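Hi R.,

As promised, here are both runs. First protein below:
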Amino acid sequence: MTVVTMKTEKSARLVEIFSSIQGEGMLIGKRQVFVRTYGCNLRCTYCDSPETLKETPIPSACRVEDPPGSWQFHPVLNPITTEVLTNIVQGYLSEYHHSLSITGGEPLLQEVFLREWLPEVHALGLQTFLETNGMLPDHLFRLLPHLDHISMDFKAPGAIGRDPDEVFQTHQKFLRIASNKQVYTKLVITPTTSIREIESVCEVISNIDISIPLILQPVTPYGVELASVSPSRILEVYSLACRRLKEVRVIPQTHKMMHLL
């Protein structure tokens, strides 16, 4: 008989750990502990976390905010073990936090480490919240038992330079798995987002459940995306999505407005 063992990983390279208010999506306004992982499998034109990309030097240390909410950071050497990370997060819980946000980069690249660590997060009494680009469905399947909330970004093919059929087929497979948890989807609207891309997003959601929320997020000018989206365009996209889906909202990056991390 062949015995299959799951790979384990006791440490990971992280970019930063801090406490702040969630500024996007359905958990907007909730205070969370944020753990930002290193590495991403995509290159979005509007990426606002270039320090997570593999083109940048691997960080020798992770920035850790201490005390929580102070904007004061000290370095902790990478890679960080599950034990050290749990101690850091536990130290933040002298103040109320709704959940732990695993963000990036693309956190599912650290799926093996997260499978090892997230049970410790639940033991601390925190819910787990994954922010993901929705392009690694097999990774999600293995991590799913340890997640409470999932925010899945739809990636417009034009923003990541990928074949549209491949992108939306992958998103549909991913969202079908994610729909077993509390999930919402998000699409960053840029001046070049096409009507066809909006229609494809709506089709993917409606093929699974038209009640899955879609957040339309006007791009915050950054990187090569320096132009904002006009109010008339936002309303046009909103109206189009509402014809197909039950739950559509327009929510900008509110933490940028409040000058939060």
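And here is the second one, sequence first, then its structure tokens:
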Amino acid sequence: MNVAIAGGGTGGHISPAIAVAEAIRERYPDTSIDFIATPRPVDRRMYQQFGDAVHILNPPRIDRGILDVALLPFRAGREFFKTRKLLRKLGSSVLFATGGYPSFFPVVAARSLGIPSIIHESNSIPGRANRLASRFSDKVLTGFPSATSGFRRRAVHSGNPVRLSLQKYDRGYAREKLDIPDGIPVVLFLGGSQGARAINDTALKAPENVYVLLQCGSRDKKRISEESSDLQMIQAIDFVDDPALLYSAADIAVARSGAMTVAELTWFRIPSVYIPYPFAADDHQKWNALEIADKGGALVSFQESTDADALWKTISSLLEDELTIQRMKSSLEGIMPVNPAGTIAEIVISTAEEGS
């Protein structure tokens, strides 16, 4: 049996693709898996471990409006037939797609070949590409319960899959590996793979009694390194594909609220302060953050009204309030379904068997 997994363009689409692939391989080791990715650097970096099982396609964007495809009929048609040819060559029994514009053509191509397909929407507000793709897919899964109402067809809440390779390390071990001094609280700042200047600038204003792990993004690394060179309690990191040590060492996190960041912080039970990216499509990061905050697992601070000094007062208060921290961790335990990656793996395989 061959499973084709379409997911690329951003870490938020690639991480769940890898997570489901890991779960399938663990449960069904005889199943072959191939990935459909984009030419973007993030795809090359995150998929490099899979070698020849990664196939590059370059579809036009359709999540900015179907008119974009209508204006590019040659490219759209070319990518559709290339994708169709690839799926036939692989002999795929099922297609799993993690959303975004790179998933649209594989889903449509699978439908044309009679191959069952499943799409997964990781955000609380379904994106346009997934809403379009859902018309051609056999099943729709969602990472957040609220997302199920965003489709015109039945959707099932599965949770957002987290990679099995994201190991939960002992806190002391993680801090030792990261050269963090003993007996000091650790705040993890995450701006995503591209970084976030507003979050980076807030991290630079940390009080002296806090150790900061700052994933600042490659674009801002030089500036942050220069501005933090005299600060002994800030460790700047451009981006890591495996942030397990960072998560394991952190007491709390300050982060954007992309779906997979939220899923991973929830999986590691890290109380967080989310600063949603204000220009995300359909403002989905705001709704991702609010869904966790409404259940007691996080706080939300909107970028336009975020003041660094006030935010640090909030962070300091949290660090001093062990009871609130424990309540937030308990809330996080109840938010994420048990092993979403495993659940999705079972759905993918059973769908393939139903279609055979």
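A quick note on the second one: Residues 73-90 form the longest helix (18 residues). Let me know what you think.

Best,
J.
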